[in-house]
Amino acid sequence: MLSELFDHAVGLPDDTDPDTYGAAWEAVMTHPGFPALSVPARWSTLISVGTNRLHRHLEDGRIEDLAGALTCLESALRLPSVPAGKRAMASFNLFRAQECRYALSRETEDLLTAVRTLWSLVDQDLPGTSARAVCLEMCGLIDQHTGEGTGPLLDLRRAGLERLLTDPADPDLPRYQLALALQFATTYDGSPADHRALVARAVRLAADAEGRLPEGQERRTATGLLARLRDLLDWIEENAPAERPPEDPRRMSVFEFSDSLRAVPDHDERLSRIREALATNSYEASRTAWVLLNMMLAEEVLAPRTNGKIDTEEAITALRAILDLPESAELGVTLGLRVNLGHAYDRRRDGDPGANAAEALAIFEQCAAEVTADHPHYPSVVSALARALLDAATTSGRFESVERAIALCRDALGSLPADAEPAVRAGLLNTVVRLLPLRTAGDPEQNSEEAIRTAHEALDLLDPVTDAVQRGDIHHNLGRLYRDRLAEGREANLWRAIEHYRASLTAQPKHEMPMDWAMSQISLGVAYSMMRGRDVEATQRLAIQAFMAAQSVFTLEEHPWDWANAEFNLGVALGDPEVRAEPDLERAIAHLTSCLQVFTQESTPRQWALTQSFLGVMRWQTGEPEQLRAAAVHFRAALRVLTLENSPRDWASIQVNLAQLEPTEDRAVHEDTIRTLAERGRSGDAFKAAMVYLRFLAERRDWGAAADAGAWAAELHEGLYQDALLRQSRHMEQRAAAGDMLGIVTMMVRAGRTQDAVLLLERTLARELGETLQQDQDVLRSARDGDPEAFDAYRAACDRLTALGGAERSLPAAGFGTADVERLQLSLVRAIAKARGERDDALARLTAAAEALRPPGLGELSAAVPPHRPLVYVYGSAEVVRLLLVRRDGEGGLDIDSRIVDRQDVPAGGDPGPLPRSGLTATLAGWLRDTGAEEVTLVPCGPLAGLPLHSFVHDGRCLLDEFAVSYAPSAAVLARRPAARPGPPVLAAVGDPTNDLPYASAEAAAVGVLLPWSRHTVRHGAAALAPVFLKEDVPGATHVHLACHGSFEQESPLESAFLLTGGTRMTLRSIMAGRAFRGVRLVFASACRTASTDAFLPDEAIGLASGLLQAGAREVIAALWNVNDLATMLIATRFYRELDSGASDGAADGTSDGAAVGASVGAGRALRTAQLWLRDSTAEQLSRWCAELLAAVPDEPTRARLREAVAFLDSRPPRIPCYAETRFWAAFVHLGGSESARMRPPPATRE
Fold first, then answer.
1. Cα 1166 to Cα 1170: distance, rounded to the nearest angstrom
2. How big is the CA angle at 1047 (ends 1044 and 1048), to the nearest 5 degrees?
C-alpha cells in the first residue's frame, strides 16, 4: 500500500494541480510505514510536502502550513547521505520558510536562524542564484530588521559585505565599501586598539570607494563620509591611550588589575588573564595578591549564568586553598568564601552527584549556623541551604527535609526589610515554588495550587527586561507545575506548561545560557509527550525533537547527568505504546540502557529505579518470552527503591505492570494500587490497574467481583472523559478505552447485572451526539419558568461551548507546534474551561434542567423500546459476538436478555468469514421469532458499527426477510430527538446538482410527484447551491431528499459533505452548526457513503447520517457504501410509494390534507419493502415500474431519463433479477429507530 502511494506521488506530472500533488505526498508521509522507507524516499516525501506547504502558506498565509513546511524541511535536512545539490535546494526552501516565520514574529532569533541558513548557501551551486545574490539578500534582510542588531547578525552582515568586496569588477563595489566602512565606524568591539584598527580600515574603504565613483551625488556622499571617518580616527588617536597588557601584580595594584578585567567582555579571556597573573604570583611573594587572585578566579569560574552543572574544579581548589590558610579568618570574608564553596559543589559537574549534594548541604548548614536573621547575608545563605536540601531530597528520593527547607525560606522572607531588592524576594519565593510540590504533608493538590500562586507572585516582582534570566527560571518551574497539576483538567494544564517552557526558552536563549535552554527543551519535550488527541503522533515528534535539541548541548563527557536525562526521555518517547502505532522498541531500549552508565542505584537511586521501570515496559512490549522475564526483573528492581511511602504514584504504576506479568493473589494489593493512583490524580493509571484487577478476577471466574472492579474502572474512565476539555482529547480517551469498556459490559452480563451492562453501554455510545441532543431537549424550556436568569446563562454557556467546538474543529494541527498555534490551543482550552464552569454553575440552579441532563437511565431506555419492537446491542470481536436484547415485558417494564455467538454456532454451510455472521443472525432471528417481534432496532458497537447486519445470510435468508430492521447510535439518541415538525408534509429535494448522475435527477423529480406534498421544492443542476438550499429550503421542510454525490472524509469526518452545484458543499460541519434540520421528520440521503462513520472512533458515530441526527432530524436513510445510480433511483422511488401506502388510511381518518404521509407505514418498514422488492424483482418488473413513473412525471427531461432506464432494463434478460447482489439492494439503512406504525405528525404548538 505504501509503495503504491509513493509510486503514485512520484508519477504525477509536473502540471498536476498543487492540491492534488500535495495530497498525494501527504498520504505517503502520514502512512504508518513512512519511517521504514529508504532515506531517498523519505527525502523526496519530506521535501515535496514541505515545499508544497510553503507554497500554500505563501498563497493564503495559513500559519499551520508554514509550521508544517518548517518541520518537514528541517527533518529532511537531518537525513544522512543526501547529495549536496539537493541539500542546497532544500536549505534554500527552508530559508524561505524561516524568512516567513521571521516576518510573522519579528524576533531577532528567528532572523538570525534564517540568515545563518542563507549564509550556508553562499558557496553552493544553486540554480537561479549566486554568491553575490545570497550576500545581497542576507545584508538586505539584516538592514531591514527593526529590532536589536545583535553581534551574530552584525558578524554575518560583515561577512557578506567582505565577500562582496572580493569581486573588483562588480559595478556596485563602492556601495559595498561604504556600507562596510559605516559598520566599522559604528562598531566598538574589543580593545581601543581594535577599534582604532577598524576605523582606520573604514577610512581606507571610503577613500577607495570615493576614487571609484563618478562625479555625482553618490561620490559627494562618499566624500562626506570619508571626512567624518578621518575626523573620528584623529580623535581616537588623540584621546585613546595606547593599550597595554595587564601589568604584573607585583608591579601594580591587584585592584587596578581587577579594574582592567572589567573592560574585557569575554569570560574565557578573563579567566586566562587571571591564570596568567596567578602563575606569576605566589603566596610567599605576595600573600594579599595571591588570596585576591584566587578569590577572583573562583568568582569567574562560577560566573556563567546557568542552573546546570559546570566545571567548578578550579573554584573548589582556589576556595579551599584560601580557607585552609591559618589567617583566613582575619580576611573577614570567610562566610562568603564558604557560601561560594557550597555553590561550587552544588554546581559541580564531576564526581558523584550524591556526594556533591551532600558536601554542598554540609557547607550551607555550617554557614546557616553562623548567621542570624538580622545578618545582611541571611536571606542568601538560607536560600542556598533550602536549595541544597531540595537537591539532596531529589537525588536521594527522601523528602523528609522539605518541610524544614520551606520553613527556612519563609523565615527569610519574613526577615526581609520592606525596601529589599525585589529579585531577592523573588528568589526566595522561587525556592518555595520548587519545594512545595515535594511536600509529603498536606493535600498534593493544595500544595500544587499554592506553588502556582507563589510562582506568579514571584514573576510579578521581576522586570521582564532586567530580570529576564530569573523570570526564565520561574517560567520553567511554572511549566513543571502546570504539567503535573491535578486541577482543571490535564489538557489545559499541558498547554499552559508548554507556554511557560517556551517563555523560559525565550528568556534563556541557547547562545547565552545553553544548559538552561537545553533543560527547558527536555521539559518541553516531556510536556509534548504527555499530550493526547488525534495529533498525538505529531506532538510526540515534537517531543523527540526537543529531547534531541537538548542533546546538542549535553554530552556524556561534559554533562553526564543531563545527558542521561535526555536519553531517558528519548527512550520513553520512542517506546510509548499509547502514542506510537509502532513503537521503536529497539531504539527505546538502547537509549534507556545507556542511561544506566550514569544513573546508579547508589548515586541516583530514584532515576535509576525509574529507568529500570521503563526498561521493563519496553521489554514487555516485545512479547518475547526472554524479554518478558527480563521485564519482571526490571520491575522488581525498581520496587526496591520506589515504595508506597516515598513514591506512591510510581510504586502503583509499577505494581500494575508487574501484576500483568506475575499476578499477585493478594486482592488487597490490587485495590491499594488502584486507590493510591486515583487519590494521587493518576486516573489513567488507576483505570489500567482496575482493568488488570478485572482480568485477574475474571480468570478466577469471580464474575461478581469482576463486575465491581469493572464498575470502578468505568467511573475512573468517566472522570478522564470529563476532565478532557478538547473534543479530540475526549475522542482519544474513548478510543483508548473502547475495548476495555466492552469487557466491563461482559463481566456485568456474566454477573447477571444486565441492566447495569446496558446502562454502561449507553453511557459510552454516541456521547457527543447524545449530549448535543440532550442540551436541546424541549423539556429544558420548562426550566426557564423557575429561574429565567439561570436558564439564559445555561443556554448562553451551551451556545459558547458549541461555538468553541466549531473553533476546535477548524483549529490547525497542534502537532506542527508553532508558538502561534499553541497559544491558540491554550486560549481555546481556557475558554472551554470557563464556559463549562459557567454552564455547571447555571445548571446547579435549574432543578428541572439538571434532572433532564442526567446520564442515560432507564427512562430513556424505555422510551427507545416501544412494545413489539426490541432494541438489540451487538458487540464483540472476530471470534465472539454478544447480543444484549432489551424488550418490554408484559407489565410495561424492561426485560433484558443476553446471547453469545461464537464460531461454533455457525450453521453447516454458513459464512465462516471474518465474523461469525451466520450464527449471529440465526441466533438473533430465532430470539425475535420467540418474542413475536416484527421489527427490531440494532445498536452495533465497536468494530461492528457500520456493517450491514440486516443482510447477513443464515439458512438461506437474512434478517430483512423476516423483520423491519432499523439502526440507532444509542437508545439515548432516540429518546432525546426533538419533536417532529408539525403540519402538512413539505418536501425539499435536490437532484443531480453536478450534472453527472442522470438517474438522480429523475429520482428527485419522481419523489416530488409520488406523494401528496402540500408544497415541494426540487432543485436541479445550477439551482442547487448548498447555501441557498440550506438557508431557504430545509428550514420549512418536513422531508428532505438528497439525490447527489456524497463524500465521506475518513481523515477528517467533519469535512464529509453532500456535493451540490458549482463546487458548493453541504458539509457535516455546516449541517451540525445550524438548526435548519431541527425537527425534520425524515432525511433520505440518497448518496454514496452517507452512513459511513469515523473508523477512528466507531462508537461515536461521526458521519453524515449521525450529523443529521445531531442537527435535529428525526429519521435518516443513508448508504453504507458507494451506490449504483439506477438501483438507487429504483429503491428511493419505491420507498416513497410504500411510504404513501397509508395516505388512504389518513383520508378515512379525516386527515386527507396529507398530514399522514408516512404515518401508517413507518420509514423502516417502507425501506425494507423497497429493498426486498429491488432484490427480487426481475428486469421485466423493474421496467414496468419505470413505465409507471414515466406516466406520473410531467417534465420532459425526467421522462427522457426514465425512457433510458426502461430501455436499459428491457435489454436485460426479462425474468432474471437484475439487482440481486447485496451491493445493490443492501446499502441503505434506516436510522432513527422506533417511529410508531400509527404515529401521525403532532399538532402545531407554540414554542
1. 6
2. 140
Domain CATH for 85: 1.25.40
Is a pLDDT exceeding 60 seen at residue 1196?
Answer: yes
CB atoms within 10 A of CB 285: 11
Residues 981 and 939 in one domain: no
Measure the CA–CA gap between 765 and 36, rounded to whole angstroms. Answer: 36
Is the CB of residue 476 less than 8 Å from the CB of residue 519?
yes
Last residue of a domain, one of 537, 567, 582: 582
3-state secondary structure 826-851: HHHHHHHHHHHHHHHHHHHCCHHHHH
Same domain, yes or no, for 947 and 1062?
no
Residue 197 identity: A
Is the residue at 154 inside a domain? yes
Q: 708 in helix, strand or coil?
A: helix
Give pLDDT, residue 1054: 67
Phi/psi of residue 988, each to 5°? -120, 120
Q: What is the pLDDT of residue 1010?
A: 85
The separation between the first and the last C-alpha atoms of the chain, rounded to the nearest angstrom, is 55
* Mean pLDDT, residues 853-862 taken together: 61
Read out DSSP for 576-611? -TTT-SS--HHHHHHHHHHHTTT--TTT-HHHHHHH
| Residue 747 pLDDT | 86
* pLDDT tens per residue across span 1208-1246: 999 988 888 989 998 899 999 998 865 533 223 333 332
Which candidate, 670, 662, 595, places its Cα nearest to that of 630?
662
d(CA 579, CA 587): 16
Show Cβ contacts of residue 810 under 8 Å, excluding neighbours closer than 6 positions.
Answer: none
- Could you tell me how far CA 272 lies from the centroid of its own chain? 49
pLDDT digits (tens, 9 = 90+) for 184-200: 777 765 566 777 788 88
User: Is 944 inside a domain boundary?
Assistant: yes
Q: Within this chain, do residues 995 and 934 fall inside the same structural domain, yes or no?
A: no
User: Between β-strands 1115-1119 and 1082-1086, what pairing exists: parallel, antiparallel or unpaired?
Assistant: parallel
| One domain for residues 1089 and 1001 | yes
Strands 1045-1047 and 1039-1043: unpaired
The reply to whether 384 falls in a domain is: no
Is residue 966 within 8 Å of residue 764, measured between CB atoms? Answer: no
The C-alpha atoms of residue 1061 and residue 1023 are separated, in whole angstroms, by 7
Average pLDDT over residues 40-52: 89
The Cα 638–Cα 632 span in angstroms is 10
Query: Residue 367 has which C-alpha cell?
Result: 554557614
CATH number at residue 938: 3.30.420
Asked if the model's pLDDT at residue 1148 lies above 50, the reply is: no
Answer yes or no: are the C-beta atoms of 1127 and 1219 closer than 8 Å.
yes
Alpha helices in 959-1067 (DSSP H): 959-962, 971-976, 998-1010, 1026-1028
- Do 896 and 1004 belong together in one domain? no
> Residue 902: which pLDDT band, with cuts at 50, 70 and 90?
low
pLDDT tier for residue 903 given thresholds of 50, 70 and 90: very low
Cell reading at 790: 439561570
What is the per-residue pLDDT across 195-245, written as a single tens digit (0 to 9) for each? 778 888 888 988 998 888 888 888 888 888 888 888 778 777 776 555 444
The whole-number pLDDT of residue 374 equals: 79
Q: Which residues of 448-466 are buried (b: 16+ CB within 10 A; e: fewer)?
A: bbbbbebbebbbebbeeee
On whether both 985 and 960 belong to a single domain, the answer is no
Residue 416, domain member (yes or no): no
Same domain, 53 and 10: yes
**Domain identity same for 696 and 723:** yes
Give pLDDT, residue 965: 92
Owning domain of residue 578:
509-582
The pTM of this model reads 0.54
Quickly count: other Cβ atoms within 10 Å of residue 586's Cβ. Answer: 12
